[in-house]
Design goal:
15 helices, elongated, Rossmann fold, nine-stranded mixed sheet, alpha/beta, about 40% helix, 2 domains, four-stranded mixed sheet, Conserved hypothetical protein from pyrococcus furiosus pfu- 392566-001, ParB domain
Length: about 400
C-alpha cells in the first residue's frame, strides 16, 4: 500500500500526495484547540507562504493525525479568499501513514506534544525580529517626549518650551543625556534644541525617508557613539526606551542591561522603559478586554509569560515582551542595587525603572554583551564594531 507504515522497520515518508480537502476527516479525539485569534494568524501565514508543511493522515481511517489547525485554516482561506487565490487551496499536501486506530491516537499525541512553535524564529532570525520591532517603534509618530522620559518627572505631557518643565528635567536628569536605542533620534533633536547635550545610539539605522536598513549608517552611528565615549563624554542620565521589550530572548535582554549597567557606572542614573502587562493590547490578546473594532493581531508565545508574536506570516513579524512590575523590578535588580519603578498613571501601557548604583559588571558578561550589540547582522553583513567597542568601554570605565 502506497505510503504505508511498516511495523518492523523505521517509517520514512517518501511521497506527498495532493488530496482534495474534503477527503480529510478531523479526528474527534484531537486534543489541541486553537482560539480565533491564533487561527487568524495561521490563516495569514497560509495565504502568504502557502502549504509548506503537509498534513499527516491515516489511510485506514481517513483521519487527520497531525495538522488539524492547518487544515482548519485552509477552510478559512477557501471561504475568505477570491476564487483565483482559493483555487490553489482546493488540494492539500498529505503524508499518509497506515496505522491501527490505537497507533493513530498515539502518533496524534506525539505530534501534538512535540512542538517548537516559534523557536525557529527566535534563534534563526533574532536580529531580523529585533529590527522589525525597532522599525515599528521608529516609524511611530512622536509629538512629544515619550513615557520613558515622562514617568520619572511625574508628567503626562512635557512642553519643551515650558521653563518649569525644563527645570524639572534638568533637576532630575541633568543636562547631559544618552539615549541608548534612540530610533530616528527625534527626541534627541528636540532636547538639543532646548540646551540639553543629548547624544544617541541606534544600531539599526535606516536610509532617510526610507524603510531600508543601511549597515554603513549603523556603523557610522556606532563610531560616533564610541568617539563620544573615547573623548570623555559622561552622560548624567542614560535612557533606554522600550528596547528591552523588543528582544525575544531573556539572555539577549540581559546583554542590553549589562551595557546599561556599564554605562551607569559613570552616570547619575539609568532610566529603562518597557511595555506593561496592563497595556490594553496585551490584555486584548489574552481575551480579557475588547477595545478595538479591528483586533490587535498577536498571539502569546508559550515559552515565557508576557511574550507575544505579532505579524506572523508577514515581513513585519516581531516579538514583544510585556512585563509586570515585580518581574521588571527583579530583572533590573540583577544589575543595579537601587531600583525605583514608576509609571505615568495607574494601569499604564508602560513601566519605567529608575536605576542607580550599578553593580560592577562581570568582564566576560560585558564582552558578550558588547559582541551582541556591536556585531549585529544587518542585511547579511555584520556591523563589525565589537573589537573597537571592547577597547572603548574598557578605557571609558577606567576613567575617574
Amino acid at each position: 500500500m502506497k505510503g504505508s507504515m511498516p511495523q518492523t522497520e523505521t517509517f520514512v515518508a517518501t511521497e506527498i500526495e495532493l488530496v482534495d480537502h474534503r477527503r480529510l476527516i478531523p479526528a474527534d479525539y484531537n486534543p489541541r484547540e486553537m482560539d480565533a485569534r491564533t487561527l487568524r494568524v495561521l490563516v495569514r501565514s497560509l495565504v502568504r507562504f502557502g502549504w509548506v508543511l503537509p498534513v499527516v493522515a491515516n489511510r485506514r481511517t481517513g483521519n487527520i493525525v497531525g495538522g488539524h489547525q492547518r487544515a482548519r485554516a485552509n477552510h478559512q482561506v477557501l471561504k475568505t479568499q477570491p476564487k483565483a487565490k482559493a483555487k490553489h487551496y482546493q488540494k492539500v499536501p498529505v503524508i499518509y501513514v497506515d496505522l491501527s486506530i490505537a497507533e493513530e491516537k498515539a502518533l496524534n499525541v506525539a505530534l501534538n506534544q512535540i512542538s517548537g512553535d516559534w523557536d525557529f524564529f527566535k534563534r534563526a532570525a533574532a536580529d531580523e525580529l529585533r529590527q522589525n520591532a525597532t522599525f515599528a517603534q521608529m516609524t511611530r509618530r512622536h509629538h512629544r517626549l515619550g513615557k520613558g522620559y515622562l514617568a520619572p518627572l511625574g508628567l503626562k505631557r512635557f512642553e519643551l518650551r515650558d521653563p518649569e518643565h525644563l527645570r524639572a528635567f534638568t533637576r532630575i536628569y541633568g543636562t547631559r543625556i544618552l539615549d541608548f536605542g534612540c530610533g530616528r533620534g527625534q527626541e534627541i533633536e528636540w532636547l538639543s534644541e532646548i540646551g540639553i547635550t543629548a547624544k544617541g545610539f541606534e544600531p539599526f539605522r535606516r536610509v532617510p525617508r526610507s524603510d531600508r536598513l543601511c549597515v554603513d549608517l549603523s556603523r557610522s552611528m556606532a563610531d560616533q557613539f564610541l568617539d563620544a565615549l573615547s573623548h570623555g563624554y559622561r552622560p548624567e542620565t542614560v535612557f533606554c526606551n522600550f528596547v528591552i521589550s523588543s528582544i525575544a530572548s531573556p539572555v539577549d535582554r540581559r546583554h542590553v542591561l549589562t551595557l546599561l549597567q556599564a554605562l551607569g557606572t559613570r552616570a547619575r542614573s539609568v532610566v529603562v522603559a518597557v511595555r506593561s502587562t496592563d497595556d490594553v493590547h496585551y490584555q486584548e490578546i489574552l481575551g480579557r478586554v475588547r477595545c478595538h473594532s479591528g483586533a490587535f493581531l498577536g498571539v502569546p508565545d508559550a515559552s515565557e509569560p508576557g511574550l507575544i508574536v505579532t505579524g506572523a506570516g508577514t515581513t513585519r513579524q516581531k516579538f514583544q515582551k510585556f512585563f509586570d512590575e515585580g518581574e521588571f523590578r527583579r530583572l533590573l535588580r540583577r544589575h543595579f542595587r537601587d531600583v525605583e519603578v514608576t509609571s505615568v498613571e495607574k494601569n499604564d501601557t508602560s513601566i519605567v525603572g529608575i536605576c542607580r548604583s550599578p553593580k560592577p559588571p562581570n568582564r566576560r558578561s560585558l564582552e558578550r554583551a558588547i559582541r551582541f550589540e556591536f556585531d549585529l547582522r544587518i542585511n547579511d553583513e555584520r556591523m563589525d564594531r565589537a573589537e573597537r567597542a571592547l577597547r572603548t568601554f574598557d578605557r571609558w570605565m577606567q576613567r575617574k
